[in-house]
Amino acid sequence: MKNKKILLSVLLVMLTLSLMGCTSRSTGLSILSSGDIEKDGMHFKYSYFNGSKEKIFELEEDSEIGINYNIKVVKGTLSIVILDKEELTILEKKFTKDDQGSLSINLEKGQYILKVKSDSSKGKFDVRYVELQ
């Protein structure tokens, strides 16, 4: 009976993690990092990050999207990327120093990926998206 409860608990955790993976994804290596991927974006602080963090979002209709960002780059390069469902790059902005601001882009109805990718960087970022219309 005890083994069945443990097995059920493990299966529930695995199911929950697999469902979470449907809307976000992390790849690569990060050291001494903390942060989260949330409903409207992501924020992370790290001593070393080489890889990417992704958030999948869907638009129910054609919309203008605002990408608000606060980036701190101590070393390396960080990029904000918007990909379509075929993972083709629609927008990319690279950072090699601290920056704060916003970008806007008109997108058609469909599924997109908000991606923050790092090339051996140290720093932190907060990136959010919002429908503007």
From TrEMBL:
Residues 1-21 form the signal peptide. PROSITE patterns: PROKAR_LIPOPROTEIN (PS51257). Keywords: Signal. It comes from the Bacteria. This is Lipoprotein. It comes from Anaeromonas frigoriresistens.
